[in-house]
Write a structure and sequence with these properties.
Elements: E1 13-17, H1 22-26, H2 29-38, E2 43-48, H3 53-58, E3 64-67, H4 84-94, E4 98-101, H5 110-115, E5 121-124, E6 137-138, H6 146-157, H7 172-181, E7 189-193, H8 205-217, E8 221-225, H9 231-240, E9 246-247, H10 254-263, E10 266-270, H11 273-281, E11 285-289, H12 294-297, E12 305-309, H13 327-330, H14 334-347, E13 356-357, H15 358-361
Parallel strand pairs: 1-2, 1-4, 2-3, 4-5, 5-6, 7-8, 7-10, 8-9, 10-11, 11-12, 12-13
Helix pairs in contact: 2-6, 7-10, 8-9, 8-14
């Protein structure tokens, strides 16, 4: 352990605060592994948004989950201010021996977590922000992959790394429900997921359709996935296609969708939550990244996953709707995406590709 750090030798209870969405949470798995390996006797409690409860319950290193009611300044959920006093009382009653702040720079939540009264609070903090025990805090890295940024804290605390892989445990029931959604017939399939929460992160539906047609002509069944809210978008994909497709929009829950992706030969998607699912379950993927920070979010396994993107001056983008001409999406062409997708799909195994720009893909 790093010299001079006053950490509990044998903590009874460790809390980890990270109230974010799917991809963000999957990136925290290596930190959870490092904590569990260093203190296997401790109860590890994950504090996060309501959606993450079942995922946390499936993680072998997590013993308990506490739902976070939100907080002003955090955009992931509307804060339930009426629930906050009770949540703070419950957090204080936990008497965490160690509480880790994995939310990011800490400027929004460090004061809140200090009020939770853990014995030790560790995390990320900027020089002028609250850090009750400065030795247990480190600055949030501004560069690098999200997994590496998070592991910067456990490195600082002297905890040995236990790998960088993500974890999304699936059950036989998940796989059976996914299989029941597919019509009778054999043969490999590709999942095509054209949706994303922000329209600024969406590659055009017609381009998804064109690549899907090429995959279908190579003998792959095309499975269109998405939420019920994304039905109009996916209908545009299907209407633009010349080949048949299996429409599963609105028919999956999170776990059956993950099992569908696990069973696929390939995933074609935007840079959104389902792309992290493919990385977690090991399914090769082709991801069109419009606006996001590729260095931060591209899968670390560059042999299995290819990210195609165009380097535009406005990246990374935080806009829900593109205020310009969506150059970052339109600069990635059908031919570039189809070439990589066909190579991965027909190989049936990881391809030697990486997160590259659209220009580099055809160089």
């Amino acid at each position: 352990m790093t010299a001079g750090l006053d950490l509990p030798a044998a903590p009874r209870r460790i809390g980890v605060f990270r109230a974010l969405m799917l991809g963000d949470m999957l990136c925290a798995v290596p930190v959870l592994r490092a904590l569990a390996a260093r203190w296997p006797q401790a109860e590890l409690v994950l504090i996060g948004l309501p959606w993450a409860r079942e995922w946390a319950q499936r993680l072998p290193m997590v013993h308990r989950f506490i739902e976070f009611p939100g907080w002003p300044g955090l955009p992931e959920r509307e804060p339930d201010l009426a629930a906050l006093p009770g949540w703070l009382q419950a957090m204080q009653a936990e008497r965490f021996d160690l509480l880790l702040q994995l939310q990011g720079s800490g400027s929004v939540v460090n004061h809140l977590l200090a009020v939770c009264a853990p014995q030790r609070l560790a995390g990320f903090a900027e020089p002028d922000d609250l850090a009750p025990e400065p030795a247990l805090f480190t600055r949030w890295p501004r560069q690098g992959h999200e997994i590496e940024r998070l592991l910067h804290l456990t490195d600082h605390l002297g905890l040995p790394r236990q790998g960088t892989g993500m974890l999304l445990p699936l059950t036989a029931d998940d796989q059976a429900r996914a299989a029941a959604l597919l019509p009778p017939g054999d043969g490999p399939y590709a999942c095509v997921h054209a949706g994303a929460r922000f329209t600024s992160r969406r590659w055009p539906a017609e381009r998804f359709a064109a690549v899907a047609d090429q995959l279908a002509r190579q003998g792959l069944r095309i499975v269109l996935t998405g939420s019920e809210a994304e039905r109009p978008l996916v209908q545009r994909v299907q209407q633009a296609m010349q080949q048949p497709a299996i429409d599963l929009v609105g028919r999956t829950d999170f776990w059956s969708l993950a099992a569908l992706v696990q069973g696929a030969r390939l995933l074609l998607s935007n840079d959104t939550g389902v792309s992290h699912v493919a990385a977690a379950v090991g399914t090769p993927s082709v991801v069109v990244s419009s606006g996001s920070d590729v260095a931060r979010w591209a899968p670390l396994d560059t042999a299995r996953h290819t990210v195609l993107w165009a380097d535009t001056p406005c990246r990374p983008c935080g806009h829900e709707h593109c205020p310009y001409q969506h150059e970052c999406a339109l600069a990635v062409g059908v031919d570039e995406v189809a070439a990589v997708a066909l190579r991965l799909a027909t190989a049936g195994a990881p391809a030697a590709s990486a997160a590259v720009s659209a220009e580099e893909a055809t160089a």
